[in-house]
Structures are given as structure tokens and as C-alpha cells.
Amino acid sequence: MTTTAPPATRPEPHRAAKTVSRPGDRIFAGLARGSGILLLVVMAAIAVFLTVRAAHAISKDHGNFLTTFEWTPSLNPPVFGIAVLAYGTVVSSIIAMAIAVPIAIGIALFITHYAPRRLGGPIAYVIDLLAAVPSIVYGLWGALFLVPHLRGVNLWLDHYFGWTYIFHKEDPNSAARSLFTVGILLAIMILPIITNVSREVINQVPKMHEEAALALGATRWEVIRLSVLPFARSGIISASMLGLGRALGETMAVATVLSASPTLSGHLLDPVGGTFSQNIVAKFGEADDFGRDALIASGLVLFLITLLVNGAARIIIQRRKEYSGANA
Length: 328
Prior knowledge:
Layout: H1 23-59, H2 83-114, H3 117-131, H4 135-161, H5 179-203, H6 207-215, H7 220-249, H8 252-257, H9 276-283, H10 289-324
Helix pairs in contact: 1-10, 2-5, 2-7, 3-5, 5-7, 6-7, 7-10, 9-10
């Protein structure tokens, strides 16, 4: 008696599970999409407003808008330029970044890898409190405390490093209301932002990476240099760009400390130069309609500088991200 084997049955193809779209998911997706579109609309509206008002001022300017050092929109014909303002804004921000970024990274690493828990917690709490201090408070502290105490530092820099030109002080008796002082004040202001974001990014480093490095005999510094910093590099750059954004647009603190003058000088210790935000807040109230258009034109340049800086930072982050291990 012969038996025939039953025909082999083919396995049923895997059916993709249908995603059930819930009302809450649809509402959340719509709100998220609408928020993104609203942000683009707001940015476009700001750009259009600044461009229209700036075009009215630039069309009547009889000087070179980008290179003229004189800011006199009240004259007929008007003459104004932003070279001094652009120089002061960029230089003070560079000074602030050069001081704040290394210190912020060091504090973040100390809290996460060196300090005991009883000490790291209070330090992180104090850093959070510094981020909540209003700008005008920083400005008052800078004008009443930082400026008088930096006079001796300025004289010391002029005595030992005056040969570098940038630390040469023309008038030794002048107050320390200079771009150098503004840079130090901005560094203190952006330090909490960079520290907090860097600390959170460093905490996201996989512990397996650090443990593997320790198992291979690496020291604590080698673990940080080879495992922590490469992974957190893109986040640290993002934190630095957030701090730079505040430094570029800071207003009241700079206006309280800086003695602005329409003079372009490489001497960082002299009370010369100015920034976009400081010039706008100082002259907006007394300016006529055309003068306000001129101030808005300077605001447009600051807006473009900020966009360029953020765009460059985004490109750097994307290029560094593939080497950081953040996608693993």
C-alpha cells in the first residue's frame, strides 16, 4: 500500500501590519507640522520686514553702506555704515567664545567624570541659576564691578603685551569700557548655556564605550579624549553655536558696559567701536523715521550674520556627525 505525501504548503507571505491611525496621532502630527510651517512663516515675515525697511534707507545713503565708518543718518544727504558695528559685534563675540567654550567644556567634564555626586550636583545647580540671570543684571554688574576691576588688568596687558598692537592702550587713564571688557562679560553670560548643553550631551555617551576603553588600560583622560569627546563633538558644537547666537544679539548688557564711538580700531583695550544691538538700543528712541530705517538696516545685517553662522554650524555638525558615533 502506497501513501502519497501531502502537497507542501507554501508559507503565507508576511502581511505587513496595518498601522492604525488614532485621532490623537493625527492631531499631534498636524500640530507638529503646523508648528514647523508657522516657524517658517515667522522667519519669512521678519526677513521681508527688515528688507523693505532697509531698502528704503540704503537707497538714500550717499556713502558706502558696508564700509563707511560714520553713522549720521540725520544729515542731508545721509551717510551711515556698519563697518564699525560689524567689527565690534564679531570681535566681542570671538573673545567671548575663546574664553567661554574651553571653560564650559572643562566644567561639563568635571561635573560628569571627575566631581563626586555630592559636589557635581550643587555645581550644576549653580550653573542653571546663572543661565536665569537677566541681561540687565549682568550689565549692571559689569558696569559697577567688572569695569573698575579690569583697569589693572588692562594696564598689565598694555605693559607686557602692548607690542602685539591689539593689547596696546592709547590712554592709560581711560576706563575699561572696551570690546575686551564686553567680550569677558559675554563669556560669563554664555557660559551657562554651553555648559548645560555640553553636560547633557556628554551624559549621553554610551557607558559601554567608556568601559571598553578602561578595560583596554586607558587612563581617565584617554577615555575622555578617545571615547567621550568624539561622540559628543557635534553636540558641543551645537552648544557653542547657541552661546554664539546670544553673544551676537546681546543688547542691554553691552549697552551698559560699552562706551561706543564710530571709530574702527584694532586696540581692544580702548573705548572705541560698538555692536549692532548696542547701537540700535542707544539711538532708536531719538532717531527720526529715516534714522529708524537705518537702524533696521543694521539689524538686517545682524540677521544675515546670524543665519550664516547657524548655517555654517549646521554644515560642520553634519560633517562631524558621521565620525562621532552618534548614529550607532
